[in-house]
Amino acid sequence: LKIINAGGAKADGHRHQDSDDEKPLAARLGINSAASKTGDASDSSSVESEPKDEPEHDGRKKWSTLVHNGVVFPPPYKPHGVKMLYNGQPVDLTPEQEEVATMFAVMKDTEYASKETFINNFFTDWRKILGKTHVITKFELCDFTPIYEWHLSEKEKKKQMTSEEKKASREEKSQQDEKFMWAFVDGVKEKVGNFRVEPPGLFRGRGEHPKMGRLKRRIRPSDITINIGEEAPVPVCPIPGESWKEVKHDNTVTWLACWNDPINEKDIKYVFLAASSSLKGQSDKEKYEKARKLKDYIRSIRANYTKDFRSKDQRKKQIAVATYLIDKLALRAGDEKDEDEADTVGCCTLKVENVTCLPPNKLQFDFLGKDSIRYYNTVEVELAVYEAIKEFCAGKKKGGHVFDKLDTTKLNAHLKDLMPGLTAKVFRTYDASITLDTILNKETTDGTVDEKAKVYQRANKEVAIICNHQRAVPKSHDSQMNKLNEKIDELTVELEKANKLLSKKAKKRKLVGSDGDAKRRRKLTPEMLQKKLSQVETRIVETDNHKNNKEDLKTVALGTSKINYLDPRITVAWCKTHEVPIDRDKHFTVLNKLF
DNA sequence: TGTCAGACTTGGAATAATATTA
DNA sequence: TAATATTATTCCAAGTCTGACA
């Protein structure tokens, strides 16, 4: 295994010398990809596989042969017959009406259930199904509690199943799914990602989404387009009497099936291969490679935008300042959004009220970004940037764009001139790589594997913070903290007791106790006590660390950066250098994705 | 040059599976 | 052995970016 790029992140003059750069990563690392194991021949025999590593990337061709079994539909609705109350009276509902009522009822203990937009949207769509003449006309008179309680008892029943029963139903399910879990891409068995069609439900938009609560209708075969190899057998439509909307043979795309999102008909939902597939792995590798390449260009890019901070050309000036912010703060590009979506922004769509100038040269950012997660940060910037932002905002009304001469297309077109393939999001990957590499190199010491893994986790955390990956405080956080505090208290008492005992022993040599522990205490030698003492001390320190770590990470979401931002090559190189096992170690299961 | 559909990556939450502790 | 904590997986929403077309 060769060390790739280790320690190189800080050196701007890094040169690429890897002669095998174009090989798949797994091949370069000499590890057999799980995905490259051929599946059962009976399924793939009809398809000739092409040699791998063939430079197929000339055109936009993604595959030569593609075989799969289509999608799995959710089971039809099974009515429970539990009657909800309207104005205190039980009401009869048709299965279709009951289905939607149940969707709402089971969301009782979520935030959505108390949001006005959610309730209004749900009620409007539900009334369409109830019909004009239905007795139910006012939401306030609806009582969904009986259905909610039925739902709770169903959940409880499921929980009470014996482990054998659970196992049996699990196995049955995986047997049913097996057929759909795999696809053959150029003869290679690959895992399919989301082969299940999304079930009907109430739309759970994030933030203040104007469509939250709308009924997401059931998807039928006639909604679905199948994409499959020309010679491959077309998957049988699993619902009798119905048929696919369309069957395509488009090898310039990687999706296996798609349908229009019922909430936003112009959006398309796709069935793709899983992240472990070589198609995904390949593009992942290209992403990290691009970020690494940016390292060679960053100096000139910075020089370029710095020069334009004072440009007379307003558009140039805005591009310069926007690029600076994306580089320095890892902001997202910020496409324009529709009226019927949550009101969020990125760099290009920042509004004047999202930035406050704090003299002499600080900027305070406060806006809702992707998923309506708040970005709140005060940063010192170059004076020229500060002055430019002040100028861009001057005279604009609330809601006006800071960068009015700019959009993501123009910005990316400019970035492409500076480096081939460069777009705004590459800066986020780049920032992540630099941060990971720097922290790993600076902070790793000759300690235990556990200590080294802590350094990795800290680097992971820093990347998450840079990318503003935040999560809601876990529901059980407070109770868990209380428990840890109690544990520390208990241990402290134990420690004090042992300490007292030790000093008494030292004085008297022999202790005559009066309580029930006396006999046991008498048997303790000072050496044993001393040992116990240090054990308790260690446990206190460990528990305290655990507690602080938990508190520290309560609003930090580590998952996304682990999966999408930490270059596995940096991780592998570090593991090798510091003798941290890659396999089996739970800290690095993320690597399964690529190896 | 702008708009829009399309295809793909990125994102947190919910849920399931597994490990740990009481 | 059950309750709880941790980790992995699934789910599906919400971004980014490209390319076709007017």
> Nearest-angstrom radius of gyration?
30 Å
Q: How much is the average pLDDT?
A: 85
Strand order of the largest sheet: 10-9-11-12
Assign the CATH superfamily of the domain at 309-422: Topoisomerase I, Chain A, domain 3
Q: Which CATH class of the domain at 309-422 applies here?
A: Alpha Beta
CATH architecture of the domain at 309-422: Alpha-Beta Complex
**Helix content estimate:** 40-55%
The N- to C-terminal Cα distance equals: 13 Å
Name the assembly state.
single chain
| Helix and strand composition category | alpha+beta
How many alpha or pi helices?
A: 17
Shape: globular
Unreliably modeled segments: 1-58, 510-516, 584-595
Residue fraction in strands:
5-15%
Find the CATH topology of the domain at 309-422: Topoisomerase I, Chain A, domain 3
Main beta-sheet strand count, sense and barrel state: 4 strands, mixed
Strand element count: 15
Write structural notes for this entry.
The protein contains 17 helices and 15 strands. The chain has 595 residues and is an alpha+beta fold. Among the domains are: 85-163, Arc Repressor Mutant, subunit A; 309-422, Topoisomerase I, Chain A, domain 3, CATH 3.90.15. It has a four-stranded mixed sheet with strand order 10-9-11-12, with no helix packed on it. Strands 1-5-6 form a three-stranded antiparallel sheet. The chain has a three-stranded antiparallel sheet with strand order 3-2-4, with no helix packed on it. The longest helix has 32 residues, at 477-508. It starts with 24 loop residues before the first helix and ends in an 18-residue tail after the last helix. Residues 1-58, 510-516 and 584-595 have low confidence and may be disordered. It binds a DNA duplex (22 and 22 nucleotides) through residues 170, 193-194, 196, 198, 203-206, 209, 253-255, 258, 261, 263, 266-270, 272, 280, 283-284, 287, 332-335, 337, 341-342, 344, 346, 369-373, 407-409, 412, 423-425, 469-472, 476, 480, 483, 557, 559-560, 563-565, 586, 589.
